[in-house]
Amino acid sequence: MFKKSKKEDKELQMQAKAGLEDMEDFDSLDELEAIAAPAGKKKKLPPWAIIPVIGVVAVIGVAGAMASGQKADKGGQMETVKAEREDVRQVYNTTGTVGSDKEKVFYCPVNAPIAQCNVKVGQVVKAGDLLVSFDTTNLERDNQQSELNTLSAKYSSQDAIEQSGRAAQTQAQTQAQVEAGIQSLKAQIQQKQADIDSLTQAAQSAGSAAAANAQKAAELKGEMQKNLDAQDAKKAKLENLQRELDGMDSTSPGYLDTLNKANILTNEIADLSTKYRALDQQYNSIGSTDDGGVSEALIQAQAELDSLKASLAEMENSRSVPADTSLTGAQLNNLRTTENLAELAQLTTEELLAKGREGLKAEFDGIISDVKALEGNEAAQGMELFTLVDNKSVNVILEVPANDFDNLVSGSKATIKIGKSSYKGTLVSVDKIALPNEKGNPTIGAKIRIDNADDDIVIGVSGKVAITVDEKKNVVCLPNEVVNTSTDGNFVYIIQNGTVKKQFVELGIASNSKVEIVKGLKEGTEVVSDTSGSIKEGMKASDAGMKADTADKE
């Protein structure tokens, strides 16, 4: 009854799309699909891709004009598109700065003039190349002062490492105690459940019990209630102490004292729980005047089981993510650098002379990224001379707007375009905090490892990045522009019994040209693709077609 969307129009669009796919200025097929898609819902291309597609847009415009003329000739025919199964890939585009994972700053090992400097910024060097040589004529050192400096540096490093180790040990003990408490509660719950099973069985066969036991049962019940009240009070104190611990780190004043108090309370609660079980066992052994107290004991045991489960849930929720008490990479590097400088200062005159004669050589293949040394200058020991970066182990550093953080998933694959070359990459890290950039806007830092780096990569330049956020195969899809949005949700127009009907749909992931239909449409459903705005629910399909033609002519 109704024809599909213009076949000729689609063929022209596909021809334009095929010409685009060979262009190197696009990072993904989705951007090409966005160019080839019918006019409608706007898709914003990245600024770097606007110029290359101007000519292509003109081609598509001509194709659209031709198709529009054909539509006018056909007159009154509804334009539709089928919901079809396709592959869809959602891509996030951004930019970043190319950096290196391996960087070595070379410091001067001696107090001596620089005899020869064979380095300049951007120079490619090989491992073993002699980069700086020294004039060792007047090389001298004060050995006593050097020894003192070495001892001070080593003691400082040792103290920092030992402090970090003690903090980690304390934290591990705390976590172990929490885990032990959890296991203890689980064992108590298991035992209490066994008690309940036993009481249930006893209740079914119990007859009557001596009235004399009723008084004793009441007394035990009172003691048990006091025990529970005491447990609740101590648990409340333990919660307060835990909140204090959450606000501290292992080096905070009073941390260990607060931790010990918490441990004492934990043990006291466990002791009370043990006493409670003993009271409960006495209570269960007394019975009552009707069924031996089994029913009442069963109720009490169930209440205690609920209390144990609540305590277990509370303790499991109190598990805190262990704070990282280890030294950061920068701190360790700083300690090593300090020790290295101190050890160099302690070397005898002969050892320093040997180092001066040896000069500085490249430790690995790479590129000189910074030079502080100048031939003929007097170089002081510890002075920064030059920096060597590895151009094979490289990454791209990103600063992504905080609102886009959900597009950053560690392990996601990416395509990086640097200059005229394209590379494959993997998102290896995402910062867990948003920080303001130079303009004051919050951004999330992330790093992408370039998996197939080559000698053409230039450190420090900008790279265009396309991250694959999600990808699905063989799912029901529609072109983006045929999906409408209202306050009630997303919807499309379909033809049902000759009448236009609004059909609400649930959307999944989307590329630049198509969107996944999760719910609301079946594969093969004909969807109205007219985007002129003249289509309304309830109108006859033939009327809708004529109105759409009128809108095109206007």
UniProtKB/TrEMBL annotation:
* Superkingdom, taxonomy of origin: Bacteria
Record carries keyword DNA damage: no
Q: Which UniProt keywords apply?
A: Coiled coil
* GO molecular function list: transmembrane transporter activity
Q: Which Gene3D superfamilies match?
A: 2.40.30.170, 2.40.420.20
InterPro entries found in the cross-reference section: RND_pump_MFP (IPR006143), UPF0194_transport (IPR050465), YknX-like_C (IPR058637)
Primary place of residence?
Answer: other
Q: Where in the cell is it found?
A: Cell envelope
Q: Where is the YknX-like C-terminal permuted SH3-like domain?
A: 476-540
- Provide the Gene Ontology terms for cellular component: cell envelope; membrane
Is NAD found in the keyword set? no
Q: In which family does this protein belong, per the annotation?
A: Belongs to the membrane fusion protein (MFP) (TC 8.A.1) family.
Please report the name of this protein according to its UniProt entry. Multidrug resistance protein MdtA
Species name: Clostridium scindens (strain ATCC 35704 / DSM 5676 / VPI 13733 / 19)
